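#structure-requests
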Amino acid sequence: MSIGVVSPLRQRMIEDMTARQLGPHSQRSHIYSCKRFAAFLKRSPDTANVEDIRRFQLYLAETGTSICNRNRIMTGLRFLFRVTLRRLDLAAEIYHLREPQKIPQVISRDEARRLLAVANSLRTRLLLSLAYGCGLRASEVVRLKVKHIDSAQNIIRIEQAKGRKDRNVMLSPETLGLLRQWWKERPSRRDAATPQQERWLFPGKRPGKPMTTRQLARLFHEAVDAAGIRKNVTLHVLRHSFATHLLERGTDIRIIQALLETASYCPRTLDRGQGSLSVSPALRGGGCDQAAIEPLRLGSGRHRASRRIACSIAGVDVAGGGGAFGIAPRATFSS
């Protein structure tokens, strides 16, 4: 499992992961886990025994490795022993710990306004507006292309995000205007030969590649400091705040789920199904648009319903469409 030379064991594990269509991030994580186990053993992992597995898990606990990282490391080892080495006896010795349930950190609406107001450039303001105003993950923001902006329907199409899922999120006229301004200022010398629909909205320093999530996180923390926010927050707090602020304004939890494409904000329990959340009537605002919720639940017309409800909550009139921006699919980006 050395760095310079790919050993036969590592190559076979990579082939097994590729055959099962594991993503690049998962593959890197599993390889790192096996390399760390090999460093602990000081020999190849295929020579490990039950006692080695026990000692390694004890070592992780004694060295203060977090529960999240312990589970991630052991997941990689389980793949190695169960799939690549076919050592089910060793895979059975691996256990995972239950992670503590924590309430997500959020910022207030006033703090969100301050954060956007102090953005020192148009690009930074647009990036943060997309993360907060659309509930996007950092990886989804940086990987946006021209073809993903649909001004005719006032939506942004997110393709193959976490869990290999597609979804549509609303696009407000304010964000539309920022996108139009940014397109005029966006540097285009590095991708002039790229078809317009395939160009990254936020190109990175490497030709043909988008900006990295690390760059986006750096811009976010600079804005947090400038806004005087003293909370210990990360960029993902904007996604949590997006969901929380919608919930506080009375949006039904099922609509928020459709916008975020996640079930984590409404987990299934023994006393209720997955379609509702136990919150106070005052917080829920006394009801919601059942006609819009039904297609969300059934999966038919989900993006139209979620766009209509979310935009109405934000005070956005979408009846007239957004064709003036000219970023509809297979259209040009300029107005």
